[in-house]
Amino acid sequence: MIDFAPHDHDGCIASALAAAEEGCAARGLRLTDARRRVLEILLESHRALGAYDVLDRLRAEGRPAQPPLVYRALDFLVAQGFVHRIERLNAFVACARPGAEHAPAFLICRACEAVAEMPVAPEEGRLGSAARATGFALEATTLEAEGLCPNCRGAVA
Amino acid sequence: MIDFAPHDHDGCIASALAAAEEGCAARGLRLTDARRRVLEILLESHRALGAYDVLDRLRAEGRPAQPPLVYRALDFLVAQGFVHRIERLNAFVACARPGAEHAPAFLICRACEAVAEMPVAPEEGRLGSAARATGFALEATTLEAEGLCPNCRGAVA
DNA sequence: AGGGGAAGTGTTATACTATATCATCCGCTG
DNA sequence: CAGCGGATGATATAGTATAACACTTCCCCT
Predict the structure, then answer these.
(1) Segment-wise mean pLDDT, segments of 10 residues, chain B, 157 residues
(2) Average confidence (pLDDT) over A100-112
(3) By its UniProt entry, which Pfam families does this protein fall under (chains A, B) (predicted)?
(4) Which of B2, B136, B148 to probe the A interface (max A CBs under 10 A)?
(5) Domain CATH code at residue A120
(6) Which residue lies nearest C18, CA-to-C1' measured?
(7) B146 contacts in A (CB within 8 Å)?
(8) How many domains does chain A have?
């Protein structure tokens, strides 16, 4: 999800899958059955899932999967930008803007566990200026925040 | 370390320990032997260590420690701001600016594994503006970047 | 069509990270 | 010195991730 507002969920699943298909085709890569199913599970659940949550769902569908299958699929999907890893949760979430070049930031609600993906430009942010100041060559960034989303903020109060 | 340059290491250990002592005293908390030793180990090693690395060092000193001891000490030190957790590494590093109010960012060298702590003001950065834009109440932030530090950058080239 | 290499998957085992639980100890306060 | 709360000891287990090797499938090339 991009922010904490409701949206057309079926539509976002379909377009994300289509974007993944296209991205793979364009790069000569294969969106195999296992990879596609893992991506679908993340899209359908629409939240951050641990690798073993994904594994459980695969097994619930009758697929006798093992951890390496899931981690390989996730590694692939993350490398291609179709899925993001949330470090604070040791979890994975489907990308909300597949196809777009981006290094996202995440807002994680500690009450409802929703994760919103925000577009940012890390090169131009604080990490970028810190890196330039010391001569550090930036290759990958993690920007995550935990707190209360607008919905839970009201509910708690 | 604050950046990737050499510095007075003995001095930084002593001042960090002193700051921790003072901080605990000021807040009516106890810097117990276990907590102090864990902090010293992180300061001496001067890099990010996993909880089990710390555990190994405690045991190497003849202390028959178990994982919960280390995690409890680390939780305390992190809560007090004397140690920071590096999410990308599942590791811990002694704070380079103890006492100062700060929400740090980290630059992690993938070659030499050095971790530099950079001062930033997250409320004013991209995460802060993203949070304000959606009504998200920011409580804790993680800003980490991986890449090549100035030293390794030269060595590889 | 068939050879052959690269990429992907199956399978087993294991390494690494973290916490639950309950008993015991220690230090302070009244 | 009794009692309380925080800290530690100890055992067990939960949760996350990868190593290693065998096998298959896809695809390209001839």
Answers:
(1) 88 95 95 98 96 97 95 98 98 90 90 92 77 94 95 79
(2) 90
(3) FUR
(4) B136
(5) 1.10.10.10
(6) B71
(7) 139-141
(8) 1
